[in-house]
Request: fold
Amino acid sequence: MMKLEQNSLGMASTVLPSRDRGGLAQPLLSVRGLHKHFIIQKSGFGQQAKRVHAVDGVDFDVMKGETLGIVGESGCGKSTTARLLMRLLTPDSGELVFDGDTVGARGGISLREMRRQVQMVFQNSYASLNPRMSIEDSIAFGPEVHGLKRTEARKRARKLLDQVGLAPNLYANRYPHELSGGQRQRVNIARALALEPRLMILDEAVSALDKSVEAQVLNLLVDLKQEYGLTYLFISHDLNVVRYISDRVMVMYLGKVAEMGDTEALYEAPAHPYTKALISAMPSMDPNQRTSKAPLAGDPPNPIDLPQGCRFSPRCPVAIDACHIEEPPLAPCGEKHSTACLRAEAVMHDRAQVIATNQELS
Amino acid sequence: MSITLDSQVPVAAPVSAPVKGYWQAVFSRLRRDPVALIAGLILLIILAMAIFAPWLAPQSPYSTSMLNRLKPIGTEGFPLGTDELGRDMLSRLIYGARLSLLIGVMPVVNAFVIGSAIGIVAGFVGGRTNTVIMRIIDVFYAFPAVLLAIALAGALGAGLVNSLFSLTVVFIPPIARVAESVTTQVRNYDYIEAARASGARSLTIIRRHVLGNVLGPIFVYSTSLISVSMILASGLSFLGLGARPPMPEWGLMLNTMRDAIYVNPWVSVLPGVMIFSVSICCNMLSDGLRSAMDVK
Amino acid sequence: MGTYFFKRILYVIPITLAVSFFCFMLVHLSPGDPMDAVVSADAPREVVAMVQAAYGFDRPLPEQYGRWVVRAVQGDLGLSTANGRAVTTEVFGALVNTLRLALVASLIGFTLGCLFGTLAGYWQGSLLDRFVTGIAVGGVSIPHYWLGMMLVIVFSVELSWLPSSGAGPGSSSDWVWEWRYIRHLILPAITLSVIPMGVVTRTVRAMVAEILNHDFVEALRAKGLAEVRVFLHVVKNVAPTALAVMGLQLGYLLGGSILVETVFSWPGTGLLLNNAIFQRDLPILQGTILVLAIFFVLLNLMVDLAQARLDPRIQRN
Reply:
């Protein structure tokens, strides 16, 4: 017998039960060994197939109730990771464990059920709403799919519109092109919430918005998280925004995790030269702190032909010979802080003269 | 006759598509297009002719009269003359609209349904399935449309059903191609991903999210095929592969009157005037519809 | 670039095989026994069996197909069931006539289409433009078998200027480019040229108008460049597409000529096909369609390759 839960929308959710099972210590989502290669050119006569290693062995946990931020340059695999988690793309290998249940395995949780509990908000607010569906119908679609009656689903849609700050009487019957970008993104958030998910993946969800609108939507996200006890996976290239909203941050570089740790620890003392470069490139509010020199030289290497050794080594200012030979594993470098860098110690303690010593050595 | 694939089929992009009253907007723009308006009006008149033939035709289209063979235009009692068996031309032209419109429009309607289904499935599923389906479709592109129609109709033998079938086969590939390309475009929008993420099954997604966004463009493309279909269908009858005598059908009438061009030339070309009118009006209406939908 | 050419050429093989399979199946699609056309229903059983073996109808389908393809590659498409002559001879004899007609028609259509299209494109929105656009729509909408009849009425029946049928004195293989033959070609060629004229006009008009709207044309004019140079520039940009469209149209004409050839009794593939259909001469039907379709496939190939060469931006899939 299913327990009737009273959720914060004040409706008995008989159709959509979500229950916490493993307790707070159990990660909500565990990702192990996630791989995704895209074949961009088929193997022909004597040629090897060209592959892009979009996600190349990623492990991480998302704890209940936290916001995990994922940052990295475009093309580093953060959006691919998000789509793999939702199984919008099929991973080549890797295991997803949702609250103790392996996704898609026997005795685990079904993909459909996992998708209900994990919802996603996309970057492009225009493209993520069907132009020929009213706002209300777009939000009601998910619950309907999961068996809610149309009238019930619409009722829920209107409640959610109210929750995200759009007056239902004014907006329910409008179409996407009649809304502004920020309003559309609120609708997308409402649509994601309609399935009462436990985890929300926000893939560059505020990146396309004006700064003022972005702040409003961020605050809305913070409020909603409180109210519904949500867990966020917040993907962005904007380090300021990630710092503002995240409890923990994961830095990705070319399909791999470069560094991971509590937000403040990571921002205060980055252990990976890539993170350090990203952070020093952040525009500062203080004019005296602004730098003019580019912290990172060159473009990221071609993800088709990955460099030998550490994949950051060709651009790394502190690389030593060992870096070009072996790829360093993700290893702890502090409390709840880990990085995949041989020179983590040096980077963390800011011994900036490493380049010189490096050059003297060679 | 060429069926050219126009890549300019307008697809509603999620940004610009004004949805509420989208079709009203299209029709209000269409109404301001005098050429399309007149074309539409003429088509309506011909359609009315077909529907109300028994009330409009002064005589039976089948009653022959050896005494009144091949009368010229303006003969008393036969305003448009008579054919080689003395049947009233006006009545036969009016009745002819029924069969001619039917065999001209039906293949496109059939092909619209079948071609859309094939193309939408191929476009939505993508991957290997898509490749296989589209490669098979490609084979049909190795035949010029007229040749394909005549080859099929010729092999199957004369008859209305066979000619309908042949023309349907001719029009499925181009419609399927357009449907596939439009669907592939729509499939890549995030709202399809979002629908998948909500756990909806493929059929539900196609029904609720894909159809509404692709059927319009496929429909507009299909209307541009009606003109070709009219000409081809009547052409098959003209060759003796479609309608059989004594049915009143414009293409067949042209055929049976071919020898009469030496006796009474201007009566014998009248059925062609009808085919041409329908064909050109369909083209103009379809052009108008396309530019009315192409909001830029 | 090289791989594109290579792939495009290789692609012809499966398509040709598929086309041949389709043509082969045509005979087996058709109702009734193809034997009925060869031997009368009351023929003795031994005769039926003998003829059946001679035509190979007694073997299983895949084997028949295999044999048929092998023989087709060697240029043997079987015998006509109507007159017992080799299908290959009949088809190629007719194909020469059809090509003659189609090429002349293409030439007329292409020349007029380019002329009309350029004029309309240059003076977009003018009365001339509307007139030309009207003609173009008419050209693609007209039932050309009907147009053929009209031309016969005017030029043969009423004015007695040109003959209404046939391909000139003697058999069709006697053709020479002399007036007594050419006069037979004029009406069918004009009739057939109407569709490519319409299609080329539309294409050229759209392209010329688009190019003239580009900023670089403004820039050329601003630089004080003579109008002739601007025109040359337009030609350079439009020519590849116009030629490609024309190449494809030539292929469509090969198919479309069947109706026109019937009207004018022009001894080409169309007339051959028409007769084959009514005599239920399936080997001829099959052979004609196969040859025309392969011709069309090769024509498409050439158009694609030429276009890729002329305009590297276009890499067709």
Notes: The domain at 40-292 of chain B is CATH 1.10.3720.10 (MetI-like fold). Chain B touches chain A through 27 residues (CB under 8 Å). The CA atoms of residues 101 and 230 of chain B lie 7 Å apart. Residues 89-125 of chain B form the longest helix (37 residues).
